[in-house]
Amino acid sequence: MRHSRSLTLAVLAAAVPAQDPAPPPNIVVIFIDDMGYADIGPFGGSIPTPNLDQMAREGMCLTDFVVSSAVCSASRAALLTGCYHQRVGIAGALGPDAQIGIADGEVTIAELCRQQGYATACFGKWHLGHHPRFLPPQHGFDEYFGLPYSNDMWPLHPGYANLPADSKKRKEGYPSLPLIEGDRIVDEEVTGEEQALLTRRYTERAVQYIHKHRERPFFLYLPHTMVHVPLFASPEFAGKSGRGVFGDVVMEIDWSVGRILDTLRELSLHERTLVLFTADNGPWLSYGEHAGSAGKLREGKGTMFEGGIREPTIAWWPGKVPAGATCAELASTIDVLPTVAKVIGAELPPHRLDGHDITPLLFGQPEAVSPHEVFCCYYAGGQLQAVRDARWKLHFPHQYQSLDGKPGGKDGSPAPYVSHRIGLELFDLRADPGETADVAAAHPDVVARLQKLAQSSREELGDALTKTRGKGVRPAGRLGDGDARLR
Predict the structure, then answer these.
(1) Is 270 a catalytic residue?
(2) Does one domain contain both 355 and 388?
(3) Which of 85, 113, 122, 127 is catalytic?
(4) Does residue 14 lie in a domain region?
(5) CA-CA distance, 68 to 471, in Å (whole number)?
(6) Which of 20, 46, 190, 243 has its CA 20 to 30 A from that of 36?
(7) Closest by alpha carbon to 159, among 149, 169, 151, 168?
(8) Is the domain of 435 the same as that of 350?
(9) In terms of pLDDT, which residue wins out, 33 or 485?
């Protein structure tokens, strides 16, 4: 009898067709340039951002999400490689005369995804080297359309445009700003009128891409040119915010997010797509009315205070990321690559990473905590200016820039910074996220612990402040005599 029953169950099981495994999830990363912590509604902003508000209601706000460095190229290198920018040899913001870029041996999120059969695309600002060897098609992206570096690296940069026409410095200023498709220039001289259409053009490309690949898993990287100065909004948004051109630009970014999420819903892809909205660094405060706000946080872009590195971040994946949730645990852009690897079932690169899988945080698992024992704050050509953990932040003596309480510039021109120096100072970020009260004297044990962790980081990644050479630093890619030049 037992034998007969087992045989019957086996026959029935064989007759029932096996269910197809769930399709791999899509990944969308929306990366804004120079956005302040308090620039959007879910993080206290007053500019209308209805789509981001809805994204937050349907997803999770990460309120302690930081970047590797408070400047463009370094921050992007960290996002795409899962490493501190210091480890991969990219610092600062690479300009049109740069001879370096992301190294051939680094593995990007796009390369991980492509190994798993994903389609991959980047529409927007790249800024990891502008020569063909360094462009997205050589680093895992099937498609690329956008600017090779920041949109102020053009002849009308305020540092050059206001000089006399016969000035040698003006004549030797930035070249014309190019627009690139793949690894070739398709527009040799992007104008202001064309910059006004960039957010819309990137968005249209992204929507078309989602439609095209709706039957195949995809990784879409959308690094917007805005809200970096110079600011431009399309005719549909110019003058609409009542908050000047900065408000118009933020509203158009919000519209772009809405178009992406609406498209995913329309194609019934929303329940199998992880969307991450974040930014590369804080607001460029010297530009005043053309810059955003870090809110309660100290300083902005160009410093490793929280205003420079803590970004307004939203994760969205209906059915996976809990709706209306807030995560106050420390996480970072360096965690995106290992998190994506976990989500899509990819193997991590063989070389050392600095990020961690944060799916327990994103999926709202009970008792999930930050995976970071220490987070390193490198700036100014390899200075370890601070280290922090989930609560405490220790600054080491260094120079930093500040407006010193004065207003920023007007009409697209920056106000001058002044230089200040901070000593060995400790801040309790839970009680004092604005880094206003030094509590080092009251917590010598915390100072000692963070100093010990910092020394281990110096030995691994180096430190220009203490002239320490790191054993774990990998060099950036460098242009050679046989490499093709951008054309």
Answers:
(1) no
(2) no
(3) 127
(4) no
(5) 19
(6) 190
(7) 169
(8) no
(9) 33
Once rounded to an integer, what is the mean pLDDT over residues 62-88?
A: 98
* Sequence-separated (6 or more) residues with CB below 8 Å from residue 217: 23, 24, 25, 26, 113, 116, 117, 118, 119, 344
Per-residue pLDDT reduced to its tens digit, 390-433:
999 999 999 999 999 999 999 999 999 999 999 999 999 999 99
Count of structural domains within the chain: 2
Domain span including residue 411: 375-477
**Active-site residue 127, yes or no?**
yes
Write down the H helix ranges in 116-236. 158-161, 168-171, 192-195, 198-212
**484 in any annotated domain:** no
Contacts of residue 97, Cβ cutoff 8 Å, sequence gap at least 6: none
What percent of the chain has pLDDT above 90? Answer: 91
Q: What is the CATH number of the domain that holds 152?
A: 3.40.720.10
Q: Is 324 left (phi over 0), alpha (psi -120 to 50) or beta?
A: left
**Given 61, 72, 122, 376, which residue is catalytic?**
72
**DSSP state letter for 334:** G
Q: Domain ends where: 315, 332, 362?
A: 362
CB atoms within 10 A of CB 405: 6
Same domain assignment for residues 140 and 64: yes
Q: Which residues have C-beta within 8 Å of that of residue 348, sequence separation ≥ 6?
A: 338, 341
